[in-house]
């Protein structure tokens, strides 16, 4: 007992120290974190070269990182642990039940329970009294929901508490993804990686991604923020708003894509090929293509677990004559839900609705307009498409930023 | 008696709204822009009604359904002939 009190006391002192000294521990966002990262990755590289599986080391470091990033910085360690406990119990017991019997209503119940943390958190945030929040909750909850769904499908046929906890706490993607899938992650950590493969693929590609992350986030995003975004004077004149729209869009991309590259690169060094998150999104020719290039792990998640399933269910029930109607409804519901996932603030909901309607509009345009059909293979027309899509997307980010509501 | 390959081609011609599939059974349907998310969903539903095999979107990986030949191989692996 005395020992625990002492530990808690020293953590409390450390929290105070961080607060007073102004130390920044933001994941991939501060030089302090990056220095710690380098120290932590050196043993991982040695293990990789020695052809030793890094999962035990990975679990150890992830636990340490959780303490550093969540506990020491006061980002809701209690809720983080409660979340892990709750979701692990839910997933393990649902796995047990499902292996005996497939019952739709039990599934719905577990699905709802697995979503409870994020729903409670987002609702409470709206009321101003934030409850159940911790660093990364929005991203971690996707992993839990996905497991319940795939266990019900019969796709996930083995789960262990150890692997589950590693999947949840895997530190490179802790705070903001990319959102991985259990079966994929499980395969990765079970693989034996040869020295040759580690040295020719995992390590160099990991380092390359980390360097890209450094360039995107610490150079480009930093410059945009310092010399453009934060220099826009207050007052919502037309010119300020337009300037803010582009500055914010570029900043968001370089900051988030930079973060993602860091997370992916770090994962590679630990022997896990976390999926990519961005692929030249501002060169998309239409909104549909944009969502295959922007925040890919999120849009794929919504595509697989909400849009496709909803469309299939509507079509199975034959509620509408045209399959396109089913798809349109599913698209709007999916994008609106994506908006809600960001938060229940009006501008997030509007952002979701905006993209839902854009997807429907894009489909109608591509299928119905002769102008498009005649010109779609012409280079000039394609350039115009990219330009138009870029501006439509930036306007979306302007809504998303909340600037218009301030 | 129509064989399974012909049924698959018929389904794909419907869901992709294209007739060029029969000519090249190895063409990558995703890269050719023929299979988007809605067409994929329709394909799964057609497989369900024609072959009685219920598939969720995450039960199949992209390579498994990326061409006529791959789909035929995938269905065979599920015991359909």
How widely separated are the two ends of chain A? 50 Å
Biggest beta-sheet profile of chain B: none
Domain unit count of chain A: 3
- How many helical elements of chain B? 3
The CATH C-level name of chain B is: Mainly Alpha
| Radius of gyration of chain B, taken over Cα atoms and rounded to an integer in Å | 11 Å
Indicate the proportion of strand residues of chain B. Answer: under 5%
Average pLDDT confidence of chain B is 90
Please compute the radius of gyration of chain A using only Cα atoms. 23 Å
**Assembly state of the chains shown:** heterodimer
Morphology of chain B: globular
Percent helix of chain B, as a range, is: 40-55%
The N- to C-terminal Cα distance of chain B equals: 12 Å
- Output the helix-strand order of chain B: HHH
Write up what this structure looks like.
Chain A has 406 residues and is mainly alpha-helical. Chain A folds into 3 domains: 74-190, no CATH class; 201-269; 285-405, no CATH class. Helices cover 74% and strands 0% of the residues of chain A. Chain A has 16 helices and no strands. Chain A has helices at 2-21, 31-49, 55-71, 77-100, 104-126, 137-153, 161-169, 182-190, 195-227, 238-269, 287-290, 296-316, 323-342, 346-368, 370-375, 379-401. The longest helix of chain A has 33 residues, at 195-227. The termini of chain A are far apart. The mean pLDDT of chain A is 94. Chain B is mostly helical and 81 residues long. Chain B has one domain: Non-ribosomal Peptide Synthetase Peptidyl Carrier Protein, Chain A. Chain B has helices at 4-16, 37-51, 68-77. In chain B, helix 1 runs antiparallel to helix 2 (37-51).
Question: How is this structure best summarized?
Answer:
The complex is a heterodimer of chains A (406) and B (81). Chain A is mostly helical.
Task: Note the main attributes of this structure.
A: 406 residues; mainly alpha; 16 helices; B: 81 residues; Non-ribosomal Peptide Synthetase Peptidyl Carrier Protein, Chain A; 47% helix; 0% strand; globular
